[in-house]
Design brief:
Blueprint: E1 2-8, E2 12-29, E3 37-43, E4 45-50, E5 53-57, E6 62-65, E7 71-90, E8 104-105, H1 112-126, H2 130-147, H3 161-172, H4 180-187, H5 191-202, H6 206-224, H7 229-235, H8 241-252, H9 256-264
Antiparallel strand pairs: 1-2, 2-7, 3-6, 3-7, 4-5, 4-7, 6-8
Helix pairs in contact: 1-2, 3-4, 6-9
Length: 265
């Protein structure tokens, strides 16, 4: 079950999003998150993969997710998954005057009391009454004012040129069968150096990174097309459908068939 409620402000709109799933749920934001948001996990847990790094959050966790970020998330129910997502969409965003924050787990406010505050905003929006929505907007900004002191400024991205080239090479040749040695030769570094760059800056390996990009593409194909799983496996660079299923389950926690069923119900 997914519910979404909106309230137009002067030059923007507050969106209150509530999601309730059972057992497990996989989400792929490979194109980048459109708007920054505040999220609260009422039940269940999530493991997010962001830039090769994993972040795991559980029940009563409050976190901030900036716009533009690419990530995948694997949700697990205990037994259900319930979470809220609050974000403001501006009709005239001024990026030059906007403080950029990093993805932040706000530990100081990750508690049942914050959960009650978030649910109250949701319940006010759910009535559909204008006055209730205005009250909800006020409560949102009170919550946001409490969150701001705990947000972490996002440091400028400074990756090594060889790593940027390796990422670009992987994206261009995603369906091709190439080795780490091939990638390293293209980037004019040794394979050992490439492994160190992926490990130190992305907390992953070149092979794992390629597999995650391939599975992102496969997940999109499963959502948007009716192609067979074997066909999708081949289109994403896997000559063995069995190996594709193994890697898909390893990364998402579901088989391709289970994932397709979860997003088409």
């Amino acid at each position: 079950m997914v519910e979404e409620f909106r309230k137009r402000l002067c030059m923007s709109e507050l969106i209150v999003y509530y999601s309730h799933h059972q057992s497990q749920h996989f989400c792929n934001i490979s194109s980048g998150k459109v708007d920054s948001s505040i999220a609260f996990i009422e039940s269940g847990s999530v493991t997010m993969t962001i830039g090769g790094k994993k972040v795991t959050l559980g029940k009563n966790s409050l976190y901030y997710m900036p716009d533009g970020i690419r990530y995948t998330s694997q949700w697990h129910g205990e037994p259900d998954i319930c979470y809220f997502d609050l974000h403001v969409v501006s009709n005239r965003p001024d990026k030059t005057n906007t403080q950029r924050y990093a993805m932040t787990h706000i530990k100081e406010l990750s508690n049942p009391e914050t959960g009650k505050r978030v649910r109250e905003i949701y319940e006010l929006f759910k009535t559909g009454e204008r006055t209730d929505k205005v009250r909800g907007v006020g409560l949102y900004y009170l919550l946001y004012s409490d969150i701001i002191p705990h947000l972490s400024p996002e440091p400028p991205a400074r990756r090594k040129p060889a790593l940027d080239e390796a990422i670009a090479f992987t994206e261009r040749n995603l369906a091709e069968d190439f080795s780490v040695d091939d990638m390293a030769a293209h980037c004019h570094v040794s394979a050992s150096r490439l492994y160190h760059l992926f490990r130190d800056e992305l907390a992953t390996t070149p092979v794992r990174f390629r597999n995650e990009l391939r599975i992102e593409k496969a997940a999109e194909e499963l959502r948007r097309t009716d192609r067979s799983i074997d066909d999708i496996a081949e289109r994403c660079g896997y000559n063995s459908p069995a190996y594709f299923r193994e890697i898909f389950r390893e990364i998402t926690g579901m088989t391709p068939a289970e994932y397709r069923g979860s997003v088409t119900q």
